[in-house]
Automatic annotation (TrEMBL):
GO terms for molecular function: DNA binding. This is HTH merR-type domain-containing protein. One of its GO terms (biological process) is regulation of DNA-templated transcription. Residues 1-69 form the HTH merR-type domain. SMART domains: HTH_MERR.
């Protein structure tokens, strides 16, 4: 089906559907160079994205960024580094730090 019909079925405007496509919230176009045709897979993907947005109270752009962090290791690492810096994520403990703390505990016990 064409974008106009798909948008009507989903209860949104064709512009909003194109916006979601630009954000990467739709499966890739099957035939390169042709207009997107919407089938059950595309409609189900949009419906699932809408459910996630409502459930977690996020925008389409926020959901797209979350997907990007899951699919691009460099982005995931940058977000993790920020989370550690601002205290939202606990820094991973290295084995050497654990051994150092263990030795300090043993020395304090004497």
């Amino acid at each position: 089906m064409r974008i106009t019909e798909a948008a009507a079925r989903l209860g949104m405007s064709p512009r909003m559907l194109r916006y979601r496509e630009a954000l990467g919230l739709l499966p890739p176009v099957r035939d390169k160079g042709s207009h997107r045709r919407f089938g059950t897979e595309e409609l189900a993907a949009v419906t699932q994205a809408l459910e996630l947005e409502r459930r977690f109270d996020v925008s389409p752009a926020e959901l797209a960024f979350a997907l990007r962090t899951l699919s691009e290791p460099a982005v995931a690492q940058a977000v993790r580094d920020l989370g550690i810096r601002i205290g939202r994520i606990q820094a991973p403990r290295r084995a050497l730090d654990f051994e150092k703390e263990k030795a300090l505990r043993l020395l304090r016990g004497r």
